[in-house]
Write a structure and sequence with these properties.
Residues 12-197 form the AAA domain. It comes from Halorutilus salinus. Residues 242-265 have a biased composition (Polar residues). It is built from 13 helices and 8 strands. By secondary structure, it is an alpha/beta fold. It has a single domain (5-282), classed as P-loop containing nucleotide triphosphate hydrolases (Rossmann fold, 3-Layer(aba) Sandwich), CATH 3.40.50. Strand 6 (169-174), helix 10 (178-198) and strand 7 (203-212) form a beta-alpha-beta unit. The longest helix is centred in the middle third of the chain and has 21 residues, at 178-198. It starts with a strand and ends with a helix.
Length: 283
């Protein structure tokens, strides 16, 4: 692995706050002095682009067919020829957006949706799962980012395997509930199995208790279960449930750019900062 730190948010379930976590940890890492690139692989909805208010610009590119190359292109055989024709700087630079909050962003693209089937046709396991890693190693590493953060699909497929293969470090936001606890347990077992089968070192680096509500006894009980089951990976600070997170996203910004002053909004900001600091320490 290079000096550039990498991580990915992943859980085989939607709605746990993976995109929100990537966006806010990305901004927190930038505020800690790191040069951050976020890569959205979570599907054509391009939620990270919406979260940072760059979706309208990117959608216009797509509609005008000025969206090539894009993140789905790097998984395909012709990527090397594309980069050679355009030049590395132009080929990669065309994909990167400035978010206005610090991190740079490579948004998700509709071309990701058919990619799982295409990758499935590649018989050799390493070639199927290392496409993204090869791209990051050859084209992103020379750009000297300090941290590359992937937002992965909420399902186990060839795209998410590519993200795990390249990131090696997994950040898992979960809500306090029995289904999520089981999913986190399965993920830890899956990472161990993948590591052993493919000879790569995958690590569950941080489990973030997300959307917590300390006022309920049920939430408190599940929180205790997580801390007992995953003492070495649970994040130091829980992220409280806050309507301000959704309101900010709807405006195309994170809480860090928002003027929301509620108690839960402030605690959420502090939680993301503290967890970002801890993530740097662990990686």
């Amino acid at each position: 692995m290079s000096e550039t730190l990498r991580a990915a948010t992943f859980l085989d379930k939607g709605g746990t706050g993976k995109t929100t976590t990537v966006a806010h940890l990305g901004v927190a890492l930038d505020r800690l002095g790191r040069d951050v690139l976020l890569i959205d692989l979570a599907g054509k909805q391009a939620d990270l682009a919406k979260n940072f208010g760059v979706w309208d610009e990117y959608r216009a590119r797509i509609e005008e067919e000025d969206d090539w190359p894009n993140i789905s292109t790097v998984f395909r055989e012709q990527w090397g020829r594309i980069a050679g024709k355009l030049g590395d700087e132009e080929a990669v630079g065309n994909m990167i957006f400035e978010t206005g909050e610090g991190p740079d962003l490579i948004p998700a693209h509709p071309g990701l949706d058919g990619l799982d089937t295409e990758l499935n046709d590649i018989e050799e396991t390493e070639r199927r799962y290392s496409r993204l890693d090869s791209f990051v190693n050859e084209y992103i590493e020379p750009m000297d980012y300090d941290f590359v953060f992937f937002d992965l699909p909420g399902s186990t497929n060839n795209v998410s395997y590519n993200g795990l293969w390249s990131a090696r470090n997994v950040v898992v936001p979960v809500e306090a509930g029995p289904f999520e606890a089981r999913q986190a347990g399965r993920l830890r077992d899956d990472l161990r199995r993948i590591s052993e089968s493919f000879g790569v070192d995958l690590s569950l680096s941080m489990l973030i208790l997300n959307k917590t509500d300390s006022r309920t006894r049920l939430s408190e009980e599940f929180t205790e279960e997580y801390e007992d089951e995953y003492p070495e990976v649970v994040a130091p600070t829980q992220v409280p449930r806050s309507q301000a997170v959704r309101n900010s996203a709807n405006r195309g910004e994170t809480l860090f750019a928002s003027n929301a002053s509620t108690g839960t909004a402030q605690r959420a900001r502090e939680a993301f900062m503290e967890n970002a600091e801890e993530l740097l320490e662990r990686l």
